[in-house]
Specification:
The chain is built from 7 helices and 9 strands; from the N terminus they run E-H-E-E-E-H-E-E-H-E-H-E-H-H-E-H. By secondary structure, the chain is of the alpha/beta class. The protein has a domain of about 140 residues: Rossmann fold (3-Layer(aba) Sandwich). The strands form 2 sheets. The chain has a 5-stranded parallel beta sheet with strand order 2-7-1-8-9, with helices on both faces. A 4-stranded mixed beta sheet has the order 4-3-6-5. Bound molecules: guanosine-5'-diphosphate (GDP) and adenosine-5'-diphosphate. Belongs to the guanylate kinase family.
């Protein structure tokens, strides 16, 4: 039987650098994860492409997906829905490939319930002051949205105990290297455990 891939979940507060770190990870030539493109009702930002950054949906379309049980998880974040397409994730894992989700914490909690064996990584800002700087510098949000995102950030950081690893995003290169190293180590750990288990059965 084909061995299943690993489900890798990266989350952390808005503005911490998840998207930037994810892109750095995926720009490595030997990256073998498959990125799961999320669905959202948020308006596309300048330069964002449907089917690349997100699948952009109307609220009605998104609620249809919820009703048809087509989402592995979903959450409302600062007034918009975000969700992970379940078929893509299951099919990709079944084909033996690792799937990489970049999602906020409420969604990650739902994934933990359905895939307790997943690898959950929380990206931390060096400080809340630096987090605010990053959201402001990115320049994609109005002042109200920045305030709301910072309020969410405090609640999100309180949920870091849910995660297997906490990685600081002080520098993009370092953070992405840490994440790649964690995934590699996790693969070794799981393979070794299974190997030991098989050996045990042989002795019996
Ligand atoms: N639960 C959930 N959150 C998601 C999903 N896709 C993106 N997000 C999160 O939704 C939040 C807002 O995303 P976005 O509007 O793109 O802003 P940004 O990540 O701050 O650039 C971020 O924390 C994303 O990681 C998803 O499929 N499910
Ligand atoms: N390690 C870092 N040091 C300084 N700035 C960063 C770092 N990581 C990301 N940024 C910047 O912070 C802003 C938010 O990053 P982004 O990837 O959009 O965050 P998120 O996806 O978590 O909301 C962007 O302007 C990005 O260039």
């Amino acid at each position: 039987m084909q061995e299943k891939g690993l489900l890798i979940v990266l989350s952390g507060p808005s503005g911490v650098g998840k998207g930037t770190v994810r892109k750095a990870i995926f720009s490595q030539p030997d990256t073998e994860f498959e990125y799961s493109i999320s669905m959202t009702t948020r308006t596309p930002r300048e330069g964002e492409v449907n089917g690349v950054d997100y699948f952009f949906k109307s609220r009605e379309e998104f609620e249809g997906l919820i009703e048809q049980d087509r989402l592995l998880e979903y959450a409302e974040f600062v007034g918009n829905y975000y969700g992970t397409p379940v078929d893509y994730v299951r099919e990709t894992l079944d084909s033996g490939k690792d799937v990489f989700l970049e999602i906020e914490v409420k969604g990650a909690r739902q994934v933990r319930e359905k895939f307790p064996e997943g690898l959950f990584i929380f990206l931390m800002p060096p400080s809340l002051h630096e987090l605010k700087n990053r959201i402001v510098t990115r320049g994609t949000e109005t002042d109200d949205l920045i305030t709301n995102r910072l309020l969410s950030a405090r609640e999100e950081i309180e949920m870091m105990d849910l995660y297997d690893y906490i990685v600081e995003n002080d520098q993009v290169e370092l953070a992405s290297e840490r994440i790649i190293a964690i995934v590699k180590a996790e693969h070794c750990r799981r393979e070794r455990v299974e190997h030991r288990y098989k050996k045990l059965l042989e002795v019996e």
